[in-house]
Amino acid sequence: MARIPLKAHVALAAPGGRNRNRLRPASHGIADFRLRSPGGPQSRCHRPAPAPVLTGGDDGFHFAPGVEPIELTWRLLNTSGLVRSGTLELFTRYRKAPLWSRTLSPDELLQGEHLFQWDGRVPKCEVFPDGVVTVEHSPYKLKLTLQGQGLAQPPVAWTYFHVLVAGMDLELGDARVLARERDRDLTRALNRLPAPGEKRELRLAGNVFKTKPTEMADNTDHQLHQKHWGSGPELPLFARVWLKDSRGNRVDAPAALGRVRFLWDWEDETEALEHHVPSARAFLASALDRHRETSRPKGDNAHRDVGGKRGAPSSTVFPKQAGYAPQAEPRDGAFPFRVTACSKRKWAAYSQAWTSGAFAGRTGVVFQPSRLAGDAWRVTVQLAYDRRRDGSVVLDMEDDAPLPAAVRASTGIFESWREVHISRLLRKDAAASAFSLPTVQGHFERAFLRLEDRTGGVSEWSASDYNARIAAAVAASRHWELRAAIDPTVDQYAAGGHALTFRSHAEFLAEVKRVKHAEDEDLARWLSPTRERRMPLLEARDYHRQCKDWAKQLLTEALDSALGTVPGIALFQFSGLYNWETTVDGIRVNGFASEFPSRQRDRCAVIQCAAEGNYRNGLNTLEQTLAHEIGHQLFLPHAPFPVSRTIGGAIAKRHDLDGKDCLMGYDFTAERRFCGLCLLRLRGWNTHALDCDGARNARP
User: What's the alpha-carbon Rg for the chain, to the nearest Å?
Assistant: First the structure.
């Protein structure tokens, strides 16, 4: 401040006298300036040298703007009334211009103590859109400057304060903010987020089945799962944000959040492989290691080149959202919060909060994990207020998680599972061996696939319904030989626990002669092999084998409409397939999984023959057979094991090269389990990107 020449009137003093005139210039200044909570903590007052340093107060003073009244106090020295004006100014880091200023009134410039009740409210502006100071620009420097005549001692003082987030609570958001009903249903089924240290299954319904045998060799299973779930399910993840008042309490002060950003991050949980047999374990380890060290973030969730999201940008896990302005009633099917991608941390995203309205004090993202079963996810949200001088966010870096955030909250583990429903269980013979669904489930759990029992229990067929279905299928058959093999007067339901009863071979020959008006010497002409029937039917052994194929054909025709209207797998259980399977050259059938004529993509059936005598050889069991047949309906072909046996439909390239005990094979000398490649197909992976030689699947 420039010095001003001073003028004054003085008394005369006698020459040589002891009286002296001493001219002391008038002065003014700031004796104290600080913020304080009534009866609580206060901020520290700073003044430029050589003013004495004042004691008391804390540079870490904080309060909750908009909800907590505090006091701004200042004490002035202005005995001569030389102060012309005073200005309050609010500054933030890395910015020279004030964010806000206020001119003091004449009364506020008078000598002595002044107190101004303040709760952080300022005029609404671009910086403070809700009219209060916010977390976004914290910490703050509040400065008082005086202007006037005379000597200022000192003319300036300042104090610091903060607007702090006390913490965040993660919660599952309102399902209504999602656009698709399937995602709303999934959100309601999940009900709550997994707490830290907890793992929860995120079940994706996957009732998609083959409709023709060739689909077991191609990539139809992956394509259909992709078509159904797209980029994955969507879950609304919200964070409830609390501010810290001057005494350290958590308070609700949504307006003080401003446009501060929150950084959402994810990391995966390493998959445990110890419970797999050595061959499957080795295959899975190589596939899960795919690009482990080079993809970001690191981990063993499915890589993007097999249909997963490891190595993909943030928009695939936290999709960009436009958001909309806060309002009292949220829009149905529209996500409320603005979500944008991070600049450097490509797999993470920012969100902003609502400062008013229905979701005041909350922020959030749409969390979209991959559709592939077995992936495990932990989501973390952190306050991203701290900036560098260039304006970039300190937390926006490529370092591995966890980030060094002062304020953060994390979920437990979301573990993605595929869910397939057992829709019906119909049993013809009450004495047929029951099976253990948990044991069957044990095979599929290794693939993170859950068989959900929605049958409501076992249902018994009515005799009239069953007989009518079989009769209609026989009548509709275009093969006259098949019609000749079935006696229409036989009560198929009462004839036994097996599915179908055929005429004896002698009765069959007699019926052929009657239908074709043939003599014995003509039978060879009528019953020779044809393009549609490979075996001649002149001998009982060939007839008994043909009855097996006819039984499969008739059952798939007769039971097609018995699949019901509910998506899932229907189980049809009999004690045996047909009446001659235990005779000389008859063939026992444990079960089969044919394509039904209606070719419903979301419904299928497994025919199960549960006679106890069917499971006497080696380690073959009823449950293994059922899992094997369900595997077929889920697109898995036969495995070529054992190599000494020709297995129809076996496709070596669609199985682990070392998986000689694969459940889709027929080696009953060992306990069978799904091989590594089968496990990944069941999980929904694009296994056409993999090799049956597991060692070739890891990528550097």
Answer: 40
